[in-house]
Every structure is written in C-alpha cells, then in structure tokens.
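> Could you send the Chloride channel prediction when you get a chance?

Sure thing. Input:
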Amino acid sequence: MSFPSSGRRLTFRSRHLMDPSPTYQQLAADPNAVTSVDVTSPALPGTMTPKRSDFATIDWIRDLARERQRKLQLLSVRGVRGMVWRWIDATQAWFLVSAVGLSAGLLVGALHVGAEWLSDMRFGYCKTGFYLNQRFCCWQLAANEPCTQWASWSSAMGIASETTAYWVAYATYLGVFAAASAYLVDYYAPFAVGSGLAEIKTILTGYIIRTFLGAR
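Output:
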C-alpha cells in the first residue's frame, strides 16, 4: 500500500531549531559563558519567593573536562618538580579522608563525654571539677562506697527535699538549654532548624548551599 506523493519533499522544522534560546546561543558562542544556574531572579506574581537564593547547580560535564585538562597539565610538567606536584595531587584525597575521619572521631568522642556529663548534671555536680561527670569524679572509689566529692543539688541548695531540688534544677537547665538552642539556630545556624537530611540530599544531587556545611 502506497500513498500518493505531491512531488514535494516534506520537511519538519522545530521551533527550537529555528529560534534557539539565549542560553543555547551563549553556549554555542562561548562554552564558558554559562557555568551554573542561580535561583536569584525575582519570583513571579502569585508564586512563593524562594527562601534560599544562593542555590547553584554543578555542571558535571564541564567539571570533568576541567579535571581532565588539569591532569594533562600535571603530566606535562617534567623533572622533579612535576613528580612532586603529581605526588601532592595524588595524596590530596587520602589526606582529606584522613582529616575527615579524625575530625569525626574527635567530634563523636566529645559528644559522648558531653552527653554523659549533661546527664549527670541533672542530679548534681563534682566538687573537685565541675567538668567531670559522676563516674570520673568518683572513679577511685568502689561501686558501693559513698562518694563525698559528688554533691547533689539538694545539698548544694540547702533544700531538705531532694524531689524539689531535682525539679528546680531540671526546670532551670531546661530553660537555659532551650533558650541557647533557639538563639543559636536563629542568629548563627538557620539551617539547623530542621533535621538537615533534606539539605544534605539536595547537596548530593548537585546543588550548592554555601552556608550549610561551612562556618559563616
């Protein structure tokens, strides 16, 4: 089965091919003209204004091309100088991984010790060292031996009832820690208002949030 031909060749023209977008024209003229996409333009009427205006997407293809060019430049350096630069470049990743692991270990250890200290602070404090928890304050004594170096809040406040002293100390620390957390989140780390998982997933997909993983 055949269809009649009109003798003219049918041509299909796309609107995008006939009228390329400005972004395509910029990339065709200069590949380095557009490096990322920033959400900094004003919002349209009736739409919600984005909360973060410093988002930028990572151009993975251009980054790979630049990394390949950098590797070729390193290989082109001759002599001892080139060997030293190539060795430094090869050990950067291992140095970074070691630094991250050491920092994570120190942070986890500090959090563990701090959590035990704050947990014991609900019941009292150490007379010989305020920074010591109950276990380290009385570590030289046996388990069933009374510790005179550890003072409960009832004895420190001169309150006969331990229940009242514990309630006052708990309410005081609760208010202090809640106010400190709210102040730090409001004035120092606004991104800490949530769990942080949404921001980390966004960063892993190729977006840049400059004030999330670094200090101000």
